[in-house]
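Notes to self after the call with IL:
- keep both proteins in one doc
- input above output, always
- annotate only the second one for now

Protein 1:
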Amino acid sequence: MIVGLAPAAHGGNRTGRMFTGDRSGNFLYAALHRAGYANQALSRSIDDGLELSGTWVTAAVRCAPPANKPTPLERNTCARYLSSELRELSGARVLLALGAFAYEALWRLPDVAGTTKGKRVRFAHGLELPLAPHQGRASGTQGHPQIAGPRTLLCSYHPSQRNVFTGLLTADMFDTVLARARELGA
């Protein structure tokens, strides 16, 4: 499960699919294609034939925020949607946070138990945190299944134009994170 910030106004918000039709998406889907998670390296529209395998792409915030900068209030308001997706994807072994905002959104979810000591660690590219199994409701209780098995929270810098153009995030760096996600998910 890959979690980004929010749909870009001229990307995912326009096309109806996260990271589609913008430069961040061009970077992401090219990397997913190289890693074997996508059948093609480019996605420009929702009906362009892109198919993902073994991954789900979503966002911490559901609407395009002003200036592409979601607020903590928007993150908290949309948390229930991210939490619902996480429960639906109970078999997902790796949660890949794209940027500190997505990391924070995941960390705050009741469904993400945190590390075994429950200690929050500062975001960093390549950060890898084993998550304790979910200790919430029992399977089937009120429609909220228990999250089964161990999970890992993995972090990468967001593939924003700023991060890519300045070299903060390179294709090799991102490929390394995706390779690790593949290892952890196997």
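Protein 2 (the one to annotate):
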Amino acid sequence: MSPVTRHLPMAIGAALALSLLAPAAAAQEYPTKPIRLIVASSPGGPNDLIARIVAPPWGDVLGRAIVVDNRAGAAGMIGTEMAARAAPDGYTLLLGFPGPLIIGPQLSDTPSYDALKDFTPVSLAVSAPFVLLVNPNVPARSMKELVALAKARPGKLNYASGGTGISSHMVMELFKLVAAIDLVHVPYKGAGPGMTALLAAEVDAMFAAIPAALPHLKSDRLRALAVGGGQRSPLLSGIPTITESGFQFDATSWYGVLAPLNTPPAIVTRLHATLARTLNAQSMRAQLTEIAFEINASTPEAFASHLRAEIATWSKVIAASGLRSSK
């Protein structure tokens, strides 16, 4: 046996060992440069607001800047796909939310990504309860009264949303399914125009974000019937939750951080630990609570379970709404 042949297995073994050690070493050094956090919407929306509140202190904990990158278009699906196709090295992350991550792909004949197959969950971050609003002309002062009114006038009441397939639309469709009522959907080009239509009594009801609704509730231009979430909102302490109102469904929008599939586990662990530390800081909790967001930091495994449950829930709602036949 020649010297070269004799030493070949050792060389191959050494090369293999080095190849296995390289990702671990890279993860230990991570991060060595700024991190991009994709927000799949224009500046000014709730997910953009969350990103800009959380990113600076999270970057401080990680030791590198986290740069918010707004990538709007196609109801958030352009930015979400961009994140799915990014290199799995921990330097491109997504602040995901239900519309483009869960609902949009189920409405598409040819979805370009899958929440479970193309992403690695890092952590849930926060949730934002919706509030069920009606125009004061509507003679209902509770969810039960609204349901009774809708059953007495099937197909006569309508509701606004910020667009077909987004959370405010789908939550109302879930309400319709749970309560067995018939309300007519009127989509608008954004939550703002939808709120304007509700104020003008062009529509009867709407699920909306609490901060957007507060000024109109204080001026009595709108009436709140119930809020989503597991407990009453400190900003609307006199308004019962949906559960207290006698209905069992979730009316919140959630936001969580995901990395591209195959991101090294050590990097995911570091991202999760630092994000949880950032979110659970007292100053962060106070800042987000003040604007009606609830902290929901979770493990990557719990976030993955949450994604699976959301896909199952919205698949049923989409089929029942007629937006798309059941798969």
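Annotation: The radius of gyration is 23 Å. The chain has two domains: 33-127+253-321, 129-236.
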